[in-house]
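Morning!

As promised:
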Amino acid sequence: MLGPGDHHALEALYRSRFDVFLRIALSTTRDESLAYDAVQEGFVRALRSFDGFRGDAPLEVWVWRIVLNAAHDLRPRRQVELVAEPGEQAEMSIAESSSSGEFASWLAVLPERQRMAVFLRYGADLDYRSIALVLGVEIGTVSATLHAARQTLEELLQEVRQ
Amino acid sequence: MIDVDAQLRDEVNRLLPTPVGFAADWGEVAARAGSPRRRRHYRPALLSAAALAAAVCACAALGATVWLLRGPDQIRTVASGPGWSLVAHRDRGRLCVSYGSAGTTASSCRLNPPHVLSLFALTPTSNGRSRVIGLASPQVKRVQVSDPAHHRVVRARIYALPAFFHSPLRFFVAEVVGQSILRPGGARQTPALTLSAYGLGNRVLRRISLQ
């Protein structure tokens, strides 16, 4: 049970799930540096407002909302085609693997909510209830959203394999 | 029957690899948040004064006294042109570089000198062109952008960061025709653009293809 001012749980969450937060933030910012900044900024905001955390939702869910909001805030106003220092990774293109490249383009056509639900479910391993709380929707909506995303992607996969 | 769940998990993990070079830094989070836990600890004034004196001495030794006196908010222009600019400033000790033009921004506080050449931003311009901005290492003497579709070769301008920042970062900027969405790519397809870095004696140091 979290006590007021007890930041240890937040710090533990940060340390144990840093990579996952970073990866999902990257899906929004599409820039590694901005994703890092989003995670840091998100946890800074969480720490500042920690005393206002009532425990109505799991701590991780509460933090996910804050980090994703930070990522949205940091996302360039108009997405540039390529941003920031890919460095040596620049040549490891998304299109390097054709299947991965196709998958990336399929995900890109999914509506924002479906895409984020996919990332939170399969990238962050959140359960439906947690995703619902993060996205601010009902559990049934998450179920329907993921079902629709899966259906779209399954159809695309089958087309490719035919 | 395709196991879409398993495939989704694999593909999402492949699409979102953990960025390399970004380590968790709770100390920074706590410092920026002004953690009450830290504030509650009593710090003797003498200790703080000694730490401050040591920091000032260290900075002076590094020739950064000017920096401290001028403060951290100095924004310096690295390069600019009609309707765009590339500026740098320091934020909590980190060097931050930002590009801005009408409707487009790109920024990073974690730029490192590239091994040879790397991209920073590829953005549309208001006159139907694209602006390629990247980083070049000190041994790069020339950067060239080849655009086979338009039979053009554009030589990029190279800019060093103002001496104010004491940073070896150098930027190149070039404008090319067209606004195709381009990504760095392998050599399997014909590249739309090729960035070439040349060193002394016109030796090719690195090529990056954009598809």
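Chain B touches chain A through 59 residues (CB under 8 Å).

Hope this helps with the figure draft.
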